[in-house]
Amino acid sequence: MTALNLFIADVYQDQKCLKDKVIPAELVLSRKEYMPAIIKYYLDQEPLLGQVPTYVGLRKDDFAYMRDHLATLVVKTTGDSGGYNMLMGPSPPAGRSTPTPSR
To answer: Which domain holds residue 77?
Structure first.
């Protein structure tokens, strides 16, 4: 239980486990429960905007949804941040076999 408490404290404060890439930041930060909790904790108010749905391809149901709706989604790798390694639409641009880094 101590390890879990330390992990939770780190995620909501220093985020060393995310910065050191012990855990992919996207897996934590994309959780629908995360940002509302941060806003409530630091600002003592409810979020004004809803969170964008995030799907994780390692989850069977998420992968099925991503596959079936690829043309309408923005897909990016879990370990990258910002606009890097994104794929918009069902296929990469002509001449590329991987998502295009956007800057």
So the answer is: 55-103
